[in-house]
Amino acid sequence: MALVALIFLLPWLGAALLPSLRPLLGRHLGRWVLVPPAASFLITLTFVIPTSHGREVRYTLPWFPALGANFSLWIDGLSVFFALLIAGMGLLIAWYSRYYLDPSERQCRFYAYLLCFMGAMLGLVLSANLLTLFVFWELTSISSFLLIGFWQTRPESLYGARQALLVTVLGGLALLGGLIILYQVTGTLELPELATSSGVIRDSPLYPVILGLVLAGAAAKSAQFPLHFWLPNAMAAPTPVSAYLHSATMVKAGLFLVCRLLPVLGGTEAWMYAVMGIGVVTFFVGGALALQQHDLKALLAYSTISQLGAIMFLYGPGTAESVRAAIFHLFNHATFKGALFLLVGVIEHQAGTRDRRELTGLLPRLPMTGTLAAIAALSMAGVPPFNGFLSKELTYEALLTSPAPVSLGWLLPSIAVAGSLLTVTYSLAIVHGIFFGKPSKTKSDHLHEPAMGMLLAPALLAGMCVLHGAIPRWLDSVLLAPAVFSVIGPQNLPPVMLWHGLSLSALMSLITLLGGAALYVVGGSALGLRSAKPPTLGLNAVYDRGMEAIDRLGTLSTRVFQSGYLKFSVMMTLGFLVLSFTYPWLTKVGTEVKALDLAPVEPYEAALLALLMIGALAVALSRQPLSAVLTLGLVGLLVSFLFVALRAPDLALTQLLIETATLILFLLVLRFLPPFSRETLSRWVRCRDVALSVMVGGLVVVLLLIANGETLYPSIAGYFLEHSLTLGGGRNVVNVIVVDFRGYDTMGEITVLAIAAIGVYSLVKLKRERHQ
């Protein structure tokens, strides 16, 4: 298990060591960052051959045994595929960031955030327990928030980071609700065991609720409609972040979850219609909005939303062919979209802008960048011989052979062709619109190619587009096919080939390419390619109005409940306390106050109790702060005497010390308080305060009586009495409990006292401000 755990622990360890290594490495810090992802990638490679032969390995470490929750790791084809994708892309992004980031920027913090996110994503895809998966799921939200908001001085970065965090965390809450219900239905959160209980889950009346909550969580993380609006705003992050989080890894987390739970929740009409419905709407909305963008990163962001919707759409049928097409396209999308994001970063780095209306005819100035961008964009459009063409062919074949209802027989392939037309159109907008045409005088004169190191990462990704398109079988047999088989079981799938003869899918591909080219040439103005239009869907406006409403509600609540009047705040707190405990007690059946079985009260004990009550009333009726503090100290002294009378000298000494320290602290504070003036209260206010005090006191008494009558667990007093001498070496049972049996608890109390002592010392040294 140690070797598998290193896959996701190494990035965390690297992030922890970065602050210590920064003084030693200086400007070479970026080289150290390459080590953790490279090591994780190499370790994951050792599992490729075993998983390609159908082997699966599970490692389990008890975590919360009482809840049946384990820290479980699962090595199978799907987890190895995603781990290699995350570590490999992370390695390329770390390399690219060395050239992208300015030396004056906080590189150490950036690399630490990047490694933390990488570790969270690796832990997520390797988890075999849904509770473990959820922990890493939330860690990806937190670390992505830090990365998106890295440029803290830019309002758009802070806005995008907060929006991404809110949407993904709310989706995480929905996912948590689904997991809780899933546990109630099955009694387990282990993924392999859930797969064997799929029939029980599907037959449960709670199945629609589970499905809806899980898909809501996945949709929020993978930017599916209508929760897609956060992704374009997250493009305010540095370009390496956009390339890593929003094309290759984070947005794939929701798709990974859907794929992982397909054997658990799939196979029903509800699954098919829900997943395909979400996917197809996202497919078209993302493609249509991409055509309206003039910011290159925004265009890529909306195209990413569209492609994620296409992958989600393919998970709907749940067949071997559709899952294969989804995983195949998921890998291809990481390659060509990652390359495009990095190349847009190159263009912005060299030209100082991402506005494609100002970037035309760049090919003569940036021939290498233009060539790589053309390869990636044409792959996204599905042009042979690139890998995107194979994804499109597999998609068409899967939908043509999908066992969908008769009414959807031709509808599903038609939807895929129509959505792909938009893909071809905005892909051509990237290639032709930027690198061809009349050069822009304001931006192209001073342009030149960046350092070759900066082009290395996008060149490798573009090369993968070519290599995987020309020779797809080598990667499919050892990596992609095992990932498919780990989801749907071993299947006899035909080999993937660049050309497999004339077929209906080939004809659909030809129609897609010609139709998309025609849309770009003929309908450019109508589609907004030449005159960019703002998005027509106002989900950002809905989000903004919602946040404004929450702010107004918070302001109103603060004005009402935090008026600055201390007495009102105490009254509201105590009133809520009374209501929150009284109502459940009155409505709970079987709760009763049982008779007390106490020792007889001695006369001196009764006298002490009477003095205590008189002292408490004296504190409340004191007219001066000093007399109230001294009377309160007297009450504490009487409590110490009561402990002595009850034969508890240790408690009496502790009480005496605490009261002495408290008295000194109060006396020191009185020195800095404004002059005391007694408040004149009406009779109604006095009656209200007395009634509230009586209710609070009565509630405490009733709760004590109830607690005295309930025996939840057997008493352990006999154990302490029996083993005090043999195990603790002392006859004073109280001392042995405090020092030995509850040593850590006592250490915590000593720590609290030390902090209190530091606070008292700070107050003693505090100087009163002098006002002129």
Task: Explain what this protein looks like in three dimensions.
- The chain has 772 residues and is mainly α.
- The chain folds into four domains: 1-265, no CATH class; 267-562, no CATH class; 606-675; 713-772, no CATH class.
- It contains 33 helices and two strands.
- It has helices spanning 2-25, 29-33, 35-45, 48-52, 77-100, 107-126, 130-148, 155-186, 191-196, 198-203, 207-221, 230-233, 239-248, 250-265, 269-290, 296-315, 320-351, 367-381, 387-400, 411-435, 441-444, 452-470, 473-488, 504-522, 539-561, 566-587, 603-621, 625-645, 649-670, 683-709, 717-728, 733-741, 743-765; strands at 57-64, 69-75.
- It has a two-stranded antiparallel ribbon with strand order 1-2.
- A hairpin with a 4-residue loop joins strand 1 and strand 2.
- The termini are far apart.
- The model has no long low-confidence stretch (mean pLDDT 85).
